[in-house]
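Q: Hi! Curious about what YgiT-type zinc finger domain-containing protein looks like structurally. Here's the sequence.
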Amino acid sequence: MSFCCGASMVGTKGTLKHYRTQVHNVPLLFCPVCQRIEVHHRVENEYEILAEYAHGDGAAHVDFQDYVMEDEETIFENVVNRESEDALEVVQSQIDMSLDLLAVAKWMQDEKWQGELKRRLAVMSQRRLQLQHKA
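A: Let's find out. The predicted structure is below.
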């Protein structure tokens, strides 16, 4: 499980640009709060090798799935949520986890952590309102 700014990161697949080469279907983790994106740690080395070779060959596009045969279920088995899930359920799950962590931070009297979690909760609550208005 990967965390960022107090949030558990969401698993997905996406496109990354490496110089002039776009690498499609790369397993990614992204933070629903700060929008940070990173290549999933299980395929990070493979991504770097493929991206470098594709760039060296002058390829404009390359599909990660064509070269790296990783089972999607195995890659994302350690993430709390996936982008393919209902967005409102993902946000609610993130809020619930943050509230649990906030209780721990209060018990530990960690003011800095409490502040970070409260900021995270504010962002996620705003996102939940947006999703509810869309529905």
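A: A fun detail: The longest strand covers residues 21-30.
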